[in-house]
Design a protein that fits this description.
three-stranded antiparallel β-sheet, alpha+beta, two-stranded antiparallel ribbon
Length: about 90
């Protein structure tokens, strides 16, 4: 049963009362990602927001953690093909 305070998670669509707001600020037009971000202006700073359930917020946090800790981002155009493959191998191990 739902009531007026229930809210739909913008990622998985589940309806419930316990939603979290994800706020992201960057100098990139986030709508280009084809995600239904809302824009919020706080003291002149534009934030892109999503209202999500706790499970989806946890998955977002895990994704950010994985991205931050991954070594795959260390690949550069200056590396040889062999060096790039070695970086990928090390990432997968």
């Amino acid at each position: 049963m739902t009531n007026e305070s229930d809210e739909r998670c913008q990622r998985c669509g589940i309806v419930g009362q316990d939603r979290r707001a994800l706020f992201m600020a960057c100098f990139y037009e986030m709508q280009e990602l084809n995600i239904n971000f809302q824009k919020q202006n706080i003291d002149g700073q534009i934030f892109y927001t999503l209202r999500v359930c706790k499970d989806c917020r946890a998955k977002w946090m895990e994704s950010i953690q994985h991205w931050f800790n991954s070594k795959i981002h260390l690949i550069t155009e200056q590396q040889t093909a062999e060096e790039k493959l070695e970086t990928i191998r090390n990432f997968l191990l």
